[in-house]
Specification:
- With about 600 residues, this protein is an alpha/beta fold.
- A seven-stranded parallel beta sheet has the order 3-4-2-5-6-1-7, with helices on both faces. A six-stranded parallel beta sheet has the order 8-13-12-9-11-10, sandwiched between helices.
- The protein is about 50% helix and about 15% strand.
- Strand 3, helix 5 and strand 4 form a beta-alpha-beta unit.
- The chain folds into four domains: about 190 residues, P-loop containing nucleotide triphosphate hydrolases (Rossmann fold, 3-Layer(aba) Sandwich), CATH 3.40.50.300; about 130 residues, P-loop containing nucleotide triphosphate hydrolases (Rossmann fold, 3-Layer(aba) Sandwich), CATH 3.40.50; about 100 residues, Winged helix-like DNA-binding domain superfamily/Winged helix DNA-binding domain (Arc Repressor Mutant, subunit A); about 80 residues, Orthogonal Bundle (DNA polymerase, domain 1), CATH 1.10.150.
- The radius of gyration is 27 Å and the shape is globular.
- Bound molecules: adenosine-5'-diphosphate and zinc ion (ZN).
- The site of zinc ion (ZN) has 8 residues, from helix 17 and helix 18.
Length: about 600
Amino acid sequence: MRDARETLQTVFGYDAFRPLQEAIVNHVIDGGDAMVLMPTGGGKSLCYQVPALVRPGCGVVVSPLIALMQDQVSALQELGVNAAYLNSTLEPQAARAVEDALLAGELDLLYIAPERLVQPRTLFLLERARIALFAIDEAHCVSRWGHDFRADYLQLSLLHERFPQIPRLALTATADARTREEIIQRLDLHEAGQFIAGFDRPNIRYRIALKQNPRQQLLQFLREEHPRDSGIVYCLSRNKVEETAQWLSAQGFHALPYHAGLPAALRATHQARFLREEAVVMVATIAFGMGIDKPDVRFVAHLDLPRTIEAYYQETGRAGRDGLPADAWMVYGLQDVLKQRQMLDASEGNDTFKRAEQQRLNAMLGLCEVTGCRRQVLLRYFGDTLPSPCGNCDTCLEPVDSWDGTEAARMALSAVYRTEQRFGVNHLIDVLRGNENERVRQFGHQRLPTFGVGEKLDANQWRSVFRQLVARGLLDSDPERYGALTLAESCRPLLRGEEELWLRRDQRPVRQRSTRSAGEAFDVDSELWEALRECRRQLAEEQGKPPYIIFHDRTLQEMCLRLPRDIQAFGELSGVGQNKRDKYASAFLQVIDSHLQNRLH
Ligand code: ADP
Ligand code: ZN
């Protein structure tokens, strides 16, 4: 029996397990069941892949993401692992070949769709084969509360009944305790070891800027920080997705739209291009992302506010699975707050539901308006704690001032009151700043006591005050009259002078940064970096595979830093196992060699 660490090195090319991985791998190799909760990018796959290789027999992986199976299997085959899958996309003949290989003991890992697994034919097959373990990926699909519920997952409890001797692992990145409880219940994992990792994604830099000119802000962010990287831009509506993708294309980016209104075939094509080509910017509604296993998404940008922290964390979590630096970038403004509140008011559902959703939105707004470390807020939301500020979010990197906004807030609230809670923010600002325009005169608002009391702040500063009042729930939006602001019950103590209010001082978003390429972001020789990427791209194209299946960015980065000159040094790089060493060393060594030659001359 091969030992776990040796397998890790020779097959996967990694030096060491991450701490939790090691515990899980040993536990499962010894025959234990496991419930594994790890954030995206935490390294869940190795937790079952290594034991599957070490234990006799074939590891069976249940995964709902049929579209991903082929890539997962070809990634394993690249490593020299005998892997295969069974799902509805296979012709009967190909499926039979897989079944034969399983029975002959030739497979190390077999991926099966849940609906396939629970068929009597498949169960009968598995009963005749030697099975090393069952891994249930995306185990939260068993939860009725979650948004990814799959009825077939409910039947997976039969694994325990039919195969009581075989270790089972349930794996998920979904955080909350209720879902976790439900997984244990429904999959009968009461006896299983529980392995729960913290939720931090330290390589992701969280940034939330004030929305002023969103397109220009996005353009500047992409040009300056990610000119040649893959990433996702999320928008709320299909129209905005289409427009933004077109506009980015016109600006020279390789941008593709993705939303539920596109024909299925076109969606599939765009998804495949995002996976297989480099530097594709996917502009998408939230319909895009579930089961996107691409490790080198370097940024996730939000042009619209997500409604909950769960959604925000899941969407931004698609960045940087490979552990290299990645950005979660968002612009946000008053209109976002109003729009989300409006959508909530208009949504179906009873009052209890709406109140719960309101609270979740408030938590999201709290994250936007916070003056302290954003990561601390995020982790606290998920019941995790980060003892000190992270140093890798915008508020840590450029501390935000706060100011005593009590008086300004009172003026704003009183302007709302005096104008009978029927006007939007632009008109209210005109009143506060004493702008005697036609509309003001039409309603006689130049005669109000509030007229002109707020000259000291400019229009942007007033917008900031109003935004924060809405975000904190001191002002509501009128469900009947779009954009009109009304007083919320909770603003009374402030109006009566019983409460103070400290506000965030918004920063001007325009800051000049030097251009950097993906390679430079990692501080490596950018010429060599691009040459290695080109080599990888060609190899990937020849084989019709995504580039990251050849090597992850991290391995290319190591090539730049360590400049291996022979096959042995090449084999020592992280991510280079024996199989890939033998297959690819010469191509990449040649690139490194000619780069060094050129540098000499
Ligand atoms: P998850 O499924 O939890 O999102 P993956 O299994 O895809 O995470 O792993 C994320 C990344 O981390 C992959 O690029 C993987 O190769 C890498 N990785 C996992 N474990 C290790 C390790 N022990 N050493 C180095 N890299 C690792
Ligand atoms: Zn921070």
